[in-house]
Amino acid sequence: MKTIYSPESQRLSEWLRLQREAKGLTMRQAADLISKPHSFIGKIEVGQRRLDVVEFVWYCEQLGFDPAEGLDVIRTGFYK
Hints:
Layout: H1 7-22, H2 27-34, H3 38-45, H4 53-63, H5 67-76
């Protein structure tokens, strides 16, 4: 099974979307902050693209999310 289709990956995609929404950011605003097209954000949030660990940490830091919380979602399945 490819990890992009795993339950953990799906939870992480959802967590990233929830974090963006909690910050009050649209996909376009988030994309502007990280200098990527908004489709980049959309593909991550719907699970069409995954982030490697370095990209994940960078993405979280650029958008003001705590990457450790995202890792906890992968491990435990629970959102904070």
